[in-house]
Write a structure and sequence with these properties.
Blueprint lengths: L8 H12 L9 E5 L4 H9 L4 H4 L5 H10 L3 E5 L6 H6 L2 H7 L4 E4 L3 E5 L6 H12 L6 E8 L7 E9 L2 E9 L3 H7 L4 H7 L5 E11 L3 H11 L8 H11 L4 E5 L2 E5 L3 H17 L2
Parallel strand pairs: 1-2, 5-9
Antiparallel strand pairs: 3-8, 4-10, 5-8, 6-7, 6-8, 7-9
Helix pairs in contact: 1-7, 10-11
């Protein structure tokens, strides 16, 4: 990051969440969904005493203070068996319902973000749009623009224009074929003009979502219907949220870039891009 301190990806994500929130850090509750084999090293990172050598560097002072403040706000939730992204969210049902009755935010654990808006990170862009339009929508998702050659690795959404750079999303397909995308997911020309899209481009998920408590009922229903050996996709639940809501789901165009850290090649490219962005914006 721009302060020149080396940090784990997890800390960068936690900072993004806190900096994007409008409430005090002591009012934030974070449920971190992990696999059992991840527990030891995540607990070591969050709860082990800070090394004296790390404390000795003045540049680490802010980072240490943040970790001390955030660790009481983080709860670890184990996904014992891996049955997909939707199932991971379902594992957090009890936790979420104990801390809130309001919509909750979902972030990917292997993505970091670069915001193109000064003093407004990507999560804050999503939260502000939802808070301003919460009377009309009970869910929201961040959206981005991709070329057709990326259809096979993204969930694609479509809908109608709601306001400048805000959409009413009514349909989604996870990793559609090119034929499916052109048949069901092409947005109209007014949206393309507003968003600056080309004819061979589509709207996709950016990786941050706001879901209502009723999403757990939908996930439970879909999980019971999921064939053995298949994964429960969060995007299937989101499609049902879109269909069952009068106004669909709020889609928020994010001015920024998502960087994947889940695979070795992607991790290296993401670190280079992340460092370059913060170096150029010192």
């Amino acid at each position: 990051p721009k302060e020149g301190v080396v940090k784990p990806v997890l800390q960068i994500i936690l900072e993004e969440i806190v900096q994007g929130s409008s409430v005090d850090i002591n009012a934030i509750n974070i449920g971190l969904i992990i696999s059992p084999e991840q527990r030891t090293f995540i607990e070591d990172f969050l709860y082990s005493p800070v090394l004296d050598a790390y404390k000795a560097k003045p540049s680490n002072k802010t980072s240490i203070a943040f970790l001390e403040a955030i660790k009481p706000r983080v709860s670890l939730i184990e996904q014992i068996e891996k049955h997909g992204f939707g199932h991971a969210i379902l594992c957090a049902e009890e936790y979420v319902k104990t801390v809130t009755t309001n919509p909750y935010v979902v972030c990917l654990g292997d993505h970091i973000y670069i915001s193109y808006k000064q003093n407004k990170n990507c999560i804050k862009q999503l939260l502000e749009a939802f808070e301003a339009n919460g009377d009309h929508f009970d869910s929201a998702t961040s959206i981005d623009i991709i070329n057709e050659d990326r259809l096979n690795v993204n969930g694609i959404v479509c809908g109608s224009m709601y306001d400048k750079e805000l959409l009413k999303l009514t349909h989604t397909i996870e990793k559609p074929s090119k034929e499916e995308a052109y048949q069901h997911l092409v947005v109209d020309d007014s949206i393309k003009r507003q968003m600056g899209m080309k004819d061979n481009q589509f709207l996709c998920y950016f990786g941050m979502d706001i879901l209502p408590i009723r999403s757990f009922d939908i996930l439970q229903k879909l999980y019971k219907q999921t064939e053995k050996g298949k994964e429960l996709a969060l995007r299937d639940a989101q499609n049902e949220l879109m269909v069952s809501s009068k106004n669909g789901m709020l889609g928020v165009r994010i001015h920024g870039e998502r960087l994947d850290t889940g695979l070795p090649d992607a991790y290296f490219e993401s670190m280079v891009a992340f460092k370059k962005h913060h170096h150029n914006n010192k």
